[in-house]
UniProtKB/TrEMBL annotation:
A motif (Q motif) lies at residues 49-77. It comes from Decorospora gaudefroyi. The keyword Nucleotide-binding applies. The lineage of its organism: Eukaryota, Fungi, Dikarya, Ascomycota, Pezizomycotina. Its EC number is 3.6.4.13. This is ATP-dependent RNA helicase.
Length: 808
């Protein structure tokens, strides 16, 4: 979206021209004076407190005044004078300390003094932001400060609009706030967009923009920009990596670090606590916390979009008594903007978010920031917690740490001067929502599926964490965690396969130990959990829903291993949650035999309490363990699903049935010799069969012809004997094939056949035809053939000519 100029009120052209001329004269004088004053600034003496202490243009002063900004924050007082003098800056200051104005004011002022304004001046300053929300926020501040008389055209470039619309506006822009991806897209695709005159490049949340995710885009953007420019980098957590500075070609940058001498890296008004909370208790604790803080504005951070969605959807159904919102990177831009606007305006609300909302966003008056999932690192912690206690206000951050995360994370926080204090959860006030969640997952397969996805992404994110001293996957009770989300089992995760196979080996060893003992069976029985009516209902409810996804998620291997085994190392003898997760199905034939053997024939009862019923046409019996399945027997249509599908058979000459493809196994095939030899043998045999058949056919045809000849001669003899007067003329037998006669006298060959195909054989002259007639007919036939050949269009021209009637 490109928003046209900040200013630009519409007035009659003549008046406007005169005013502009006067203004330019004023500005020239103003600019000269300002330039001198800026050069005389002494940025290091620290005596500048208010904005009015700085040589700023009238429009900027007015903008600041109308926004009620009077006293500068620390970072502003240090950074703005340096930036006004044109220095490159590497600025690090706490969250909410006013870094935005520290670059907005120099951008407006430096371009103003250069008179880099108007459509012909081109792009003078580019401000890059890692997220769209932050870019919008920066643009709003720019607009607020710049709307009182500055003539710059400023735009917001964050995608979401057609490239063409943006293209047209881009060429006129003097200041752009953009996300790296969209900016690069225009630099590489919009021919008229020139950045050759760019004077300033600003990176907000610089450490984020310079990290891996944006590396390619930012490097490519910098390639387009002129080397001679001023560069400003700002962030709450700033690294001074030489490589990063080299990438941006900073010239002797000034380090403006406000929290270096400070005791802590986080704002003074911020109270920071942590609680030790196992993964499986997080949902209960969070719910209880929200219930106890309904009159607050709360921001909760999670590690994945899936978790955000699951918690949002499930809590919403439980009617928490406080408006819930959620934001994550997988939402559409409109939805994200809507949420940020709603949360900004809300007095009491709870926003569930991923780290997309962790940086820069200036939500007013947030009371609590709850980090439900441990942040990747201390920098992320600082940015997240910085959404509260902004600009001298109070706020509170609570970090949930699993017992295994506590030691490692606390060490890292301490190293970066982040003071956190442990508090305890009042157990009496903690409500358990496990049953409610379980019930909701049971009622709503979509929610269950979301829960399964949330579980998997969360586990995966722990697995992928770089800091293995904090995130130790094996230390979490994942089975209990899955249950705490209301899931009917622990979803299976592919990347755990290796660990799993190791555990399987251990499990089998343990099984052997148990089976050695004389009480093995009793042990297994005793440890098998009792299945209630509810369990059975749950299994039925879930067996058909989202079958494909479900199969992927839930282990259903031939070894009967349960999902729980994957993570907890429970042995097969434990029984685990096998029954809880198992989906009832037809008993395989082998098992049926076993069942019959142990239970006796007749009314075979299945171990789980079901009844076996044989369905006509089905090769395997059905387990009837509920009214629902009983009913199934009454529906013919449904039963067809259980029936065996018919096989397609072909019959040989002896009438024996064969399957369409009868394949011998490899060993049998190889025993017969090499493939090439087999092929040759097959060809020879086939040839022999064909030759024999040919000889037989020929002999039969010859015999037939001889017989005919014999019959005819006999008939002739009889006729002669009767003394027929017309015996001089030989009349053919009506219907007798003359060609057959002709062939009877010659040896039949393949060549003959070929000839016949090419040129139909000259028919034997009929008794009433003369030699001349014959010749005439041949000529006619040749002509007709020639004409026919021309009539067949062969080329495009023929077809066209045919269509034009030329050949017709
Ligand atoms: N000089 C000032 N006087 C009064 N309020 C100010 C001043 N400077 C900034 N603020 C206010 O302080 C709040 C935080 O400012 P800003 O968003 O610039 O912080 P930040 O340092 O960029 O934070 P973050 O690191 O989280 O991005 C804003 O609401 C802003 O309006």
């Amino acid at each position: 979206m490109v928003t046209p100029g900040i200013t630009g009120r519409i007035r009659p052209t003549k008046v406007k021209k005169r005013e502009n001329l006067q203004k330019r004269k004023r500005d020239d004088v103003d600019v000269e004076k300002l330039e001198q004053a800026v050069q005389q600034l002494d940025p290091k003496n620290g005596s500048y407190k208010d904005f009015t202490d700085l040589p700023l243009s009238e429009p900027t002063k007015q903008g600041l005044k109308s926004s009620h900004f009077a006293v500068m924050t620390d970072v502003q007082a240090k950074a703005i004078p340096l930036a006004l003098q044109g220095h490159d800056i590497l600025g690090a200051a706490k969250t909410g300390s006013g870094k935005t104005l520290s670059f907005i004011i120099p951008v407006l002022e430096n371009l103003y003094r250069l008179q880099h304004v108007g459509p012909d001046a081109g792009l003078g300053a580019l401000i890059l932001s890692p997220t769209r929300e932050l870019a919008i926020q920066i643009f709003d501040v720019l607009r607020k400060i710049g709307r009182h008389g500055h003539m710059f055209a400023a735009g917001l470039l964050i995608g979401g609009k057609s490239l063409q619309d943006e293209r047209e506006a881009l060429a006129k822009m003097n200041i752009l706030v953009a996300t790296p991806g969209r900016m690069l897209q225009h630099l590489s695709q919009t021919a008229a967009f020139s950045v050759d005159d760019l004077k300033m490049l600003v990176l907000d949340e610089a450490d984020r923009i310079l990290d891996m995710g944006f590396q390619h885009d930012v490097d490519a953007i910098v390639e387009y920009l002129p080397k001679e420019r001023q560069t400003l980098l700002f962030s709450a957590t700033q690294s001074k990596k030489v490589s990063d500075l080299a990438r941006l070609s900073l010239h002797d940058p000034e380090y403006v670090s406000v929290h270096a001498q400070d005791e802590s890296a986080t704002p003074k008004g911020l109270t920071q606590n942590y609680i030790v909370c196992p993964l499986e208790e997080k949902m209960d604790t969070l719910w209880s916390f929200i219930q106890a803080s309904k009159k607050s504005k709360i921001l909760c951070f999670f590690s994945s979009a899936k978790t955000v969605r699951f918690v949002y959807e499930s809590f919403r159904h439980m009617q928490p008594g406080i408006p819930l919102l959620h934001i994550h990177g997988r939402q559409k831009q409109g939805a994200r903007l809507d949420t940020t606007a709603k949360f900004s305006a809300a007095k009491h609300s709870c926003l569930f978010a991923t780290d997309v909302a962790a940086r820069g966003l200036d939500f007013p008056a947030v009371d609590f920031v709850i980090q439900v999932d441990c942040p990747d690192d201390v920098d992320t912690y600082i940015h997240r917690v910085g959404r509260t206690a902004r600009y001298n206000r109070e706020g509170r951050g609570v970090l949930f740490l699993a017992p295994s995360e506590e030691e490692g994370m606390l060490k890292r926080l301490e190293a970066k001067k982040v003071p956190v204090e442990m508090i305890n959860v009042r157990q009496k006030k903690r409500q358990s929502i496990k049953d409610q969640l379980q019930n909701m997952c049971f009622q709503d397969p979509a929610l269950k599926y979301l829960g399964q996805k949330a579980f998997m992404t969360h586990v995966k994110s722990i697995y992928l964490q770089k800091d293995k001293k904090v995130f130790k996957l094996k230390e979490y009770d994942l089975e209990a965690y899955a249950a705490s989300l209301g899931l009917p089992g622990t979803p299976r995760i592919k990347f755990m396969k290796d660990d799993n196979s190791r555990q399987k080996k251990q499990a089998s060893r343990q099984t052997i130990d148990v089976s050695d003992s004389s009480d093995a069976e009793e042990v297994a029985k005793a440890e098998k959990p009792v299945r209630t009516k509810y369990d059975r209902m749950f299994e039925r409810k879930n067996q058909d829903v989202l079958a494909e996804h479900y199969k992927k998620l839930v282990r259903d291997g031939p070894d009967g291993e349960t999902p729980a085994d994957v993570f907890t190392g429970a042995s097969a003898a434990d029984g685990g949650d096998e029954d809880f997760m198992a989906v009832k199905r037809r008993i395989p034939a082998d098992d049926e035999e076993e069942a019959s053997a142990t239970m006796g024939t007749g009314d075979a009862r299945v171990a789980s309490g079901g009844r076996l019923v044989h369905v006509a046409g089905a090769s395997q019996p059905l387990v009837i363990d509920s009214n629902r399945r009983e009913k199934l027997l009454q529906s013919k249509k449904k039963l067809t699903r259980l029936m065996d599908k018919g096989k397609r058979l072909v019959y040989d000459e002896e009438g024996n049935p064969h399957e369409v493809y009868e394949l011998e196994d490899e060993a049998q095939y190889r025993a017969k010799g090499l493939p090439e030899e087999q092929r040759q043998k097959f060809i020879e045999t086939a040839r022999e069969v064909v030759q024999n058949a040919d000889v037989e056919d020929k002999a039969a045809a010859k015999a037939k012809r001889k017989d005919k000849l014999r019959k005819r001669k006999e008939r002739e003899r009889n006729e002669m004997a009767e003394g027929d007067a017309d015996a001089g003329v030989e009349l053919p037998d009506p219907g007798e094939d003359l060609l057959a006669n002709f062939r009877a006298d010659a040896e039949y060959t393949d060549e003959d056949d070929e000839e016949q195909q090419q040129e139909p054989s000259k028919k034997a002259k009929k008794w009433f035809e003369s030699e001349d007639e014959d010749e005439e007919k041949t000529q006619k036939r040749k002509k007709a053939k020639a004409a026919h050949r021309v009539e067949e269009p062969e080329t495009l021209e023929d077809i066209e000519a045919l269509a034009a009637g030329l050949l017709g």
